[in-house]
Amino acid sequence: MDLGPNAKDTVIECNKKWRRAVIHTIDVSSKYSTSATKTIDAFRRGMYMRDIDFHVGDISEWIGQQMQVRDGKPFLSHVILDLPASYSHIVRATSALRVDGKLLLFNPSITQINSAVELVKVKKLPLQLEKVVEVGPAMTGGRPWNVRFVKPRASLRQATAWKSSDTGASNESSGGESVESHPNAANEDDDRDHGVSEGWEMVCRPKPGDRVSGGGFVALWSKNRIRQGDCLS
Question: Which end of the chain is more exposed for a tag (fewer CB within 10 A), N or C?
Fold first, then answer.
């Protein structure tokens, strides 16, 4: 039976009422969104079309609108940000992310990943950095990177010396070693009131392994339960 040229769209809209998992994809340009729609529709006769909602606009604005509709309750199981300056959307994305949900960033430069790690620390977001991986062309290969904040040991010794001098004690400070912190030092209880500028320095280097050319960098966080002092605004 011929249901007309819009039969497929009608069936998809009807099936949306019964779906349990939804992928939301947001593009800043309608051109890109239309291209993505055609690509999914042409893949295996559009078998995944009913499970994907295509949107056009700013990601942070879209999340804000969805949060208002849902009375501010987190509604996203996972978030993938693959766009320029993706770190600028982390705060809003985290607010919509459910506990234990994953936040993944893809950027062509490791310095962009650094900016994201720094933002998480400064904003005290309830995110735990799990890994940073360098991938090759077509998302092949994968080399882990160490991206974390450290405090130079000399700075720690100097701070200890200052405290000791107030109580009449003396301390010696020497050396230029560094003390490693947790990869997501922003969530450490003893550093909740300190900013990145207070003695922290960024360490960013590849872990031992094969060399990778082209591609980009992927950073993965998981969301912890919100604690007092965490910021999501």
Answer: N
